[in-house]
Design brief:
This protein is 4% helix and 59% strand. With 724 residues, it is mostly beta strands. It has a single domain (5-166, 183-723), classed as Beta Barrel (Maltoporin, Chain A). The longest helix has 18 residues, at 5-22. The protein is globular.
């Protein structure tokens, strides 16, 4: 045997051993079933072979779950210009994150169903449903699929799940973290209490090289950004059933996510001979607090009709300061003070009545009232040769002192009709009428009213039990970012301290057309999902010219109409047909095109940083006989054309490939030990910025090109999990 043959045979032997071990999966385990309504049900017994720790671990073993969770690259469903969906949706709405617990949505914006999945132990689950049809019984609408987590029913049950972890970053820093949750039921009372502290340290190492338009060197910048964040999150979800007809839930969450930081810059001026060096330091203290309380009450009438009311109150406060110092030897001279405060509040109540009209039809009618308030302030102080200095501006000369309050009061009236056309076809029709008033006070006093009609049609056809066709048409209206109404900070450009506000902003709108075809293999061996979408966009928000006689300025504004279209294909394949049911492969590709007229150049271009799409690949191998699993997730964005246009600069972004690796095993004390390597390829984030002087990008001259890249490095994590 040649020396080179030995490692080859050894690798083959190991591979055969792994294959042999993976075939020891219990073939008699309960299997998922698909009912007449295209709902796929996974009993808890199906997941026992994987020894999952949480609901998240259970979902990771389901083929096609990324599509159901809205992460499959489906450009039609969960975001983009003019969208009414996503976490920034208007009010509570009919949508959400497509996750239900025991058939109901969690009343919240931050504290939604998806945030509960890592907190619920797997041993508390009775079964999981992937709901592919539409129904008046669903609390969440608007998604291609809905995930319903059904917990065990008993007079008395409880489980405590915990996790301790340590992250290691590429600068040598170690950061600990921990999570604990208590899940249980006592008669008609159920509860989920959790607390966690999660490391979010960031050490970003960057380098920038600048040249003038004629190619001669300008300067270089070595940059280190440090963010020391370790958010603390406390949450509670409580429910109580009053007899057979009444159910009430109260949900709460508190998050403390302070993120103080520092930025070190070493600027080498190459225009001088010899080159000169300037050292700068930014100190950026930052506090971030958020709390949210949500509740819902449901009453079921004797005829099966339901009345449900949901309410939510939340508040988020961000208070940040940036002070820049020029360091000369042992002395520091402050030349910039920039303080920004934002308080964002929502108060929402939503009430609806749903009833069956016939055996094949039902309807829901309701109203929602939402009040959204932003209080904002910005103070800018600079080091000047003249002017009175103020301690309120960091001891520098006041330049900008902006204060504003923006408030929107919105009413939404909705009607939803579900019609089971026949055993294989369903049609859901939605009509939403909304009216709102936005009032701004402070530096600018302005009041405006808006009215929108938002219809939607969702058609589904089960061609066979395995093949489903879906088509939808929807009018979307996006929620405005009130920060765009007022002067705000720009954290992405050291040469631009603040950006102007625009009190004349209007909501982005869209007509969204989607076609979707899904094929599910037999015996849970995989899913192929294809989607084609086209979005007709109105009042797109991007940078517009708000210059004054003394300064060239831009702000976010409405630049006109455009479109966006594309396709995505997502596939999951379990290698059961090769007698390897423990191996699950996932892949996805999305291609996208868009167009809008640039307000500065007057030419056609893509949407801001829209790009052309990307692809992803995942691999998971469960070795049940060894109580072990390992795998990877890889993501690549197609490079080029991720451009952002501003009044005096054009930026071209490029993102490196992203790779996560993991290895998990169950060992001593029946604990789960998990090792993760994030950003294993050390992918860089790069940007080319072209600056213009003497006017805009249309009227000025190219002056400087900055080419910068940065990376946060590879992060390693060790996690130990257990339940009792």
């Amino acid at each position: 045997m040649s020396p080179t043959a030995t490692p080859t045979r050894l690798a083959l032997a190991i591979a055969l051993a792994c294959c042999s071990l993976s075939t020891s999966f219990a073939q008699t385990q309960d299997q998922p079933v698909t009912d007449a309504n295209s709902t796929v049900t996974y009993p808890a017994e199906f997941f026992a072979q994987y020894e999952p720790f949480s609901v998240n671990d259970m979902l990771d073993r389901i083929p096609g779950i990324t599509v159901a969770r809205g992460g499959g690259g489906n450009g039609g469903g969960n975001g983009g210009p003019g969208s009414s969906n996503g976490s920034d949706r208007r009010g509570l709405g009919l949508g959400g994150d497509q996750i239900m617990i025991n058939g109901r949505r969690i009343t919240g914006k931050e504290n939604e169903g998806n945030s509960q999945l890592s907190r619920i132990p797997a041993n508390q689950v009775q079964y999981i449903e992937i709901i592919r049809g539409t129904s008046g019984d669903l609390d969440v609408r608007g998604g291609n699929q809905v995930i319903n987590i059904v917990l065990l029913e008993s007079e008395s049950r409880s489980s405590i799940a915990f996790e301790v972890n340590t992250d290691h970053y590429h600068d040598g820093t170690y950061q600990p973290g921990a999570k604990i949750s208590l899940t249980g039921q006592r008669g008609d009372f159920d509860y989920l209490l959790s607390g966690e502290i999660e490391p979010r340290w960031e050490y970003r190492d960057g380098f920038e090289r600048s040249v003038f338009a004629n190619g001669t060197p300008n300067d270089t910048v070595e940059r280190i950004d440090i963010r020391d964040s370790q958010p603390i999150t406390l949450s509670a979800n409580l429910g109580y059933r009053f007899g057979a007809s009444d159910l009430v839930h109260v949900n709460g969450q508190y998050n403390d996510a302070d993120a103080p930081g520092k930025t070190h810059r070493r600027i080498t001026d190459l225009t001088e001979s010899p080159a000169s060096l300037t050292t700068e330091l930014d100190r950026t203290p930052s506090t971030n607090d958020f709390w949210e309380i949500g509740s819902d009450y449901e009453h079921t009438f004797a005829n099966g009709a339901r009345w449900k009311t949901l309410a939510i109150v939340n508040r988020k406060e961000d208070d940040s300061t940036r002070e820049t110092f020029v360091i000369d030897g042992g002395t520091e001279e402050k030349d910039l003070y920039l303080a920004n405060f934002n308080r964002y509040q929502e108060r929402i109540i939503r009430s609806s009545y749903s009833a069956s009209l016939s055996e094949s039809q039902d309807m829901e009618i309701g109203v929602e009232r939402a009040q959204t308030i932003l209080d904002s302030s910005l103070q800018l102080g600079l080091l000047t040769s003249s002017g009175t200095r103020s301690s309120a501006f960091g001891g520098l000369t006041p330049i900008t002192n902006s204060n504003a309050t923006v408030e929107e009061l919105r009413y939404e009236y909705f009607l939803v009709h579900n019609w089971q056309l026949n055993a294989r076809m369903s049609l859901e029709s939605t009509l939403i009428a909304e009216t709102s008033e936005i009032a701004q006070t402070g530096d600018v006093s302005k009041k405006r009213s808006f009215d929108f009609i938002r219809p939607k049609i969702d058609y589904r056809f089960d061609i066979t039990p395995a093949v489903q066709f879906r088509a939808s048409i929807e009018k979307g209206v996006s929620q405005l970012s009130f920060n765009d109404f007022t002067a705000n900070i720009n954290g992405g450009d050291d040469d631009q301290n603040a950006v102007a506000g625009n009190p004349d902003l209007r909501q982005e709108q869209s007509w969204r057309y989607d076609l979707n075809l899904e094929y599910r293999f037999n015996n849970d061996n995989g899913v192929i999902n294809t989607n084609v979408f086209y979005h007709d966009l109105e009042d797109i928000i991007d940078k517009v010219d708000v210059s004054t006689k003394s300064a060239i300025l831009s702000a976010n504004g409405n630049i006109g109409d455009g479109y966006r279209y594309g396709t995505s294909i997502n596939a999951s394949l379990r290698l059961g047909f090769l007698n390897q049911p423990g191996i699950l492969l996932t892949s996805g590709v999305q291609l996208e095109e868009s167009e809008v007229t640039d307000p500065f150049l007057g030419t056609k271009r893509r949407l801001r940083q829209a790009g052309r799409g990307g692809y992803s690949f995942g691999f998971r191998h469960d070795l049940s006989a060894l109580s072990m699993n390992y795998g990877l997730n890889y993501r690549h964005s197609i490079s080029g054309d991720r451009l952002a246009y501003d009044i005096d600069k054009i930026e071209d972004y490029n993102q490196g490939d992203f790779l996560n690796l993991f290895l998990e095993t169950r060992g001593w004390a029946d604990l789960t030990y998990r090792f993760e390597a994030s950003n294993a390829l050390d992918g860089e984030r790069c940007r080319v910025r072209s600056r213009y002087t003497g006017g805009t990008i249309a009227t000025g001259a190219l002056n400087e090109i900055e080419n910068s890249c940065s990376t946060t490095g590879i992060k390693y994590a060790i996690k130990i999990r257990g339940t009792f």
